[in-house]
Amino acid sequence: MSNEAATAQAAQAAEAAPAPEPLPHGLGVSLPAADARAKTEGTFPYAADLWAEGLLWAAVLRSPHPHARIVSIDTSHAREMPGVRAVVTHEDVPGSPLHGRGTADRPFFASEVVRHHGEPIAAVAADHPDTARMAAAAVIVEYEVLDPVTDPEQAFEAEPLHPDGNLIRHIPLRHGDPEAAGEIVVEGLYRIGRQDPAPIGAEAGLAVPRPDGGVELYLASTDPHADRDTAAAAFGLEPERVKVVVTGVPGATADREDPSFQLPLGLLALRTGCPVKLTATREESFLGHTHRHPTLLRYRHHADAEGRLVKVEAQILLDAGAYADTSADALAAAVAFACGPYVVPNAFIEGWAVRTNNPPSGHVRGEGAMQVCAAYEAQMDKIAKKLGLDPAEVRLRNAMATGDVLPTGQTVTCPAPVAELLQAVRDFPLPPLPKDTPEEEWLLPGGPEGAGEPGAVRRGVGYGVGMVHMLGAEGADEVSTATVKVHDGVATVLCAAVETGQGFTTLARQIVQETLGMDEVHVAPVDTDQPPAGAGCRGRHTWVSGGAVERAAKMVRTQLLQPLAHKFGMSTELLQITDGKITSYDGVLSTTVTEALDGKELWATAQCRPHPTEPLNEAGQGDAFVGMAFCAIRAVVDVDIELGSVRVVELAVAQDVGRVLNPTQLAARIEAGVTQGLGIALTENLRTPRGLIRHPDLTGYALPTALDAPDIRIVRLVEERDVVAPFGAKAVSAVPVVTSPAAIASAVRAATGRPVNRLPIRPQAAVVTERS
Length: 772
Description:
- It is a single chain.
- The protein is of the alpha+beta class.
- It contains 16 helices and 29 strands.
- The protein is 26% helix and 25% strand.
- Strands 3-7-1-14-11-12-13 form a 7-stranded mixed β-sheet. Strands 9-17-16-15-10-29 form a 6-stranded mixed β-sheet.
- Residues 41-147 form the Aldehyde oxidase/xanthine dehydrogenase a/b hammerhead domain.
- One of its GO terms (molecular function) is oxidoreductase activity.
- InterPro entries: Ald_Oxase/Xan_DH_a/b, Ald_Oxase/Xan_DH_a/b_sf, Ald_Oxase/xanthine_DH-like, AldOxase/xan_DH_MoCoBD1, AldOxase/xan_DH_MoCoBD2, AldOxase/xan_DH_Mopterin-bd_sf.
C-alpha cells in the first residue's frame, strides 16, 4: 500500500471513529495530578538532582554531644586541605545569629554552648563531596561536656539551658466550676514518643550567588517567603536580594527543609562566589530537622452514672527539645483539644512546653492534637469499662455538635457531625474472623509465617474520635495571594502555595476549569518573586490559597463576560460557562470561550484572608481557631498475647470533609494519614537515651511498610459544607493521623485488657500473663 493510500485509509477511519470523550475537569472530579507523569518517569525536578557550572559541595559539622560548652574551634586543618574553598563558623555570620520558625532563639552555628545532639558547629565548601565531609571532620572542637537535661519534668528545676529560660509557654485553662465532681472518676498517665517526619527523598539544596551580591536558594521549601526572610536576616541582606526557588517537593508531613541545611548553603555561596550544593544523608536528616513533641499527660475524668462527662482535669507537658520553634502553637492545640470532640461542662487543663537537651521538636502533622487524642480516648475506654458500657456508646453520649462550646469558650460554628461519624464506623460490618485450621492459613500478628500460635491470638475492636484545627491560630494573619492569567485559550495560575503532596496544584487547575470552563490550565513554578502564600500546613492552601485562586478566576470571568453581557443588554450573572461554551439563560447567546477571548489577554490578582482569631487569654479562653475538622475510626486488631505482637486487620474511617473536591485525591490523603498514624501507634519511636539519637537511620527507626498497612475502609464522608470556607471544603490529611493511633490503642486494650498507656505500643504492653 502506498503512503498516500495509507493516509487516506487512516483519515477515513478517523472520521468513522467516535469522538473521544472529553476529559473530566472542574471541582468534584478525580483530575489526575499534574506531576504524576514526571514522578513516574523520573524527570521530576528534585533538589538533590540540581547542578550548576563550577559547583562546590557543602558539609556541616554537627555536635556529638547533647550538652557541652565550646572551649575552642580550630578550623586551620580543614582550611589547609586541598580542594577546600571555605570554612565558616558563628564568627562568619554577617547578620542575625538567631533564627526559628516561631521564636528566633536558635543559633545559626553554636558558639558558646551546644544544646542538642547534632547542633551545627561549622560548614565547609569543597570541590568534591568527600573532600567536604573530610574537611568538616577535620575541624577540631574542644568541648567541656555537661550533664544533659533530658527529662522534661526536671526542666522546671534545672539550671537554664537557654538565655530565655527553660519554660517556653504555660497555659492554665479554666472553664466551668472547679468544685464539680462526677459519680465515677478515672485517672491515667500517658506517654507519647518522639516521631520523626522521615521525609521521602533526600533533603538537599543549591545556593547560587547573584551579581548584585545576593543569593538564590533552590530548596524543597514548604514556606519559601519565611525561609527567604530568615536567610536574608542571617546573611545581613535585604529580602529582595535573596530569592528562594522551590524545587520539586517529594512530600512533606512537617516543615520539609530545616534551616540548618539552608543557611550554611547561602553563606558558603556568598563567601566563595560559587554555587554550593548540599545533599543530606539520612543520618543528617535525623540530626537536623525537628520532630514530633514527646508528651507526658496526666488525666482525671469525672462522669455521671450514665457515662456523661462532668469534668476533665489534665496536665500536659510537651518536650520542646533545645529550642522553641513552634512549641507554643502545639501547646495551644493540645490544651484547647485536651477534652476531645466531646461536651465537657467543666475543664481545668494545665499545659507546659519546656526546653531540654533533647533534639528539637516542631511542626509535624496534627501536632498537639494527636498526643491528647491518644490520652482522652484511653480515658473514654476506662469510663466505658467501669460502667460496663459499650465504648462507642459512651462516646456517642458525649459527642460534640455544632453550637456546642469548647473548653476555650469558643462556640463551634462549623459543621461538627461527630455522632454521625461514630455511628457510621460502629455500624459498618466487622471483618470476618480467620479460620483456625491447618488447611486455611491466615496472617498471624508476627507477619507471614508468624512465630506465634493461632490459639494465642485475641481480636480486639476499638474506637478513636479526633479533631484538629485548620489554618493558623491565636491571631495568626492567614492570607494568600494568587494571579490568574488567560491567553490563547490557556490559563496560568501564579501562586506561591507549595505543592507538598496535598494536591494544591491539581486543585488550582480544577478551580480555574470550573470557573472559566477552560481545559488547559497550568500552575507556574513557585519562587519568592511572587506574593507570599504562607506555609503548606493545616490545610491552609486548600482554604486560603484555593480561595485566592477562586477569587482571581472569578474576576477574570467577569472581564471575559462583561463585553458580551453589555452587548446583549444583560447581567453577567445571567451567563454561564460550561465545557468551554458561554450561554445565556434564554439561549440567545451561545459562543465559545476562545471566541469570546478573541486573542485578548486577561488577568486578575486576588487575596483570601479568613476571619480573624484571637490569642488565648490568661485563663485559656478565646476564639483561637478559624475552623475544625473531625474524624472517627474503628480499629480491628489481632494480638498475640504471648508475644505481644499486633496486627492491625482493618481501620474503618468516617470523616467530616465539608465537600469532596477530588475523590481520588481525597481518598489517598485519608489513607496516607491513617497509615502515618499506624506508625505512631506501633513502630515509630526515635530513641534518645541521654539526649543522643540512637540509630539515626531507617533500619533503627521502623517506618510502617506496605506489608504493615491494614485494609482501610472509608465508610462515610460527611459533606456538610462549612459556609465560611471557600467551596465549603475542610482539610483532610491531619485528622486521620490524630485519630488512628488512639483507635489502634483502644483495640489493643479491648483484645488484651491491658491499659496500653504509651505510644508506640511496646510488645510487653500487649502481653497477657496470669497476673495481668
